[in-house]
Specification:
- The structure is a single chain.
- With 294 residues, the chain is of the alpha/beta class.
- It contains ten helices and eight strands.
- Strand 3, helix 4 and strand 4 form a beta-alpha-beta unit.
């Protein structure tokens, strides 16, 4: 009888161990299954492209369209302090919470009008935008270099930008924020700036349309830069809906997937002249879903 009891106890312990192991395996499989279906890509739009720059209303429009997020302007020409004003930042945070639409990233488009390469006050903008990004829980800030901020054939401007980025990069690194350079420059020119700054907090904000228009071969640049150097991407056809312009979007999608990029893609400037924004962006969203989420 005693031996039977010992045997039964051993069998119970063995069974319990098997049950625990099975439960652990089930948990692991469930976790793997959840990760397998986790989205690699999230689709947002620029607040200026949905017609509501630095405004809580951008989130309402994004929800109506069905977007995952909104890329928010850090400031505007009328409100240079922008998200550094606590009330403005809180209004954006509240709009995100109310609608369920994320703040996907920030952008300082005002650098096109007030160049980072030459205007001292822009250093304060970029520094403070890092704090705003941290407060909103976003990881990327787009720094724009077009129009008056253009860096093409401007070695003096490039040197000034490098020196200014060197000063703010440690602050961005400490806060876990990436500063993304978007410009007309080639992929190699972007890398030259990044290498000169010498910080993991500075990367390329890649725009396929801009690079193509500047005469660069995007299908060589995308693999050259790779997922480690591209912090975020714009999906744009100036004045046309996505898939209806000259860019080969299926090939773009393949190139993006091939480098293993995962993260936000922001729709910009993809509304035909005179067309309504909401239906145009619903088309753009569905088009990208077909390329990336199907």
């Amino acid at each position: 009888m005693k031996e039977d009891l010992v045997l039964n106890r051993r069998q119970m312990l063995k069974s319990s161990a098997l049950l625990l192991a099975s439960a652990a395996l089930d948990d692991a499989n469930a976790s793997m299954s959840a990760n397998a279906f986790a989205p690699k890509y999230q689709i947002g739009a620029c607040d200026w492209s949905v017609g509501r720059q630095l405004s809580p209303e951008a989130f309402e429009r994004a929800k109506q369209i069905g977007l995952h997020g909104i890329q928010v302007s850090y400031n505007t020409g009328k409100d240079e302090k922008g998200l550094s004003v606590p009330e403005t930042l809180q209004a954006i945070r509240d709009a995100s919470a109310r609608t369920g639409v994320k703040v996907s990233s920030l952008a300082i488009g005002e650098l096109n009008r007030v160049p980072y390469k030459s205007q001292p006050k822009t250093e304060e903008w970029v520094w403070n935008s890092v704090d705003a990004a941290k407060a909103l829980g976003v990881k990327v800030i787009l720094l724009a270099f077009f129009s008056d901020g253009d860096l093409r054939n401007d070695d003096t401007g490039k040197k000034a930008v490098i020196e200014r980025l060197k000063k703010v990069a440690p602050h961005a690194e400490k806060q876990g924020i990436t500063l993304g350079i978007e410009s007309w420059l080639s992929g190699q020119e972007h890398l030259d700036i990044i290498n000169a700054v010498g910080s993991k907090a500075v990367k390329v904000y890649y725009d396929f349309r801009n690079s193509t228009d500047a005469g660069h071969d995007i299908f060589k640049e995308i693999p050259m830069l790779g997922k480690d150097m591209i912090c975020e991407i714009h999906m744009k056809e100036n004045g046309q809906r996505l898939g209806e312009g000259p860019l080969d979007w299926p090939r773009v999608a393949k190139a993006v997937k091939d480098i293993g990029y995962e993260g936000w893609m922001q729709i910009e400037g993809a509304t035909p002249r005179g067309a309504e924004i909401i239906p145009a962006y619903q088309h753009n969203l569905n088009y990208l879903k077909g390329l990336f989420l199907s």
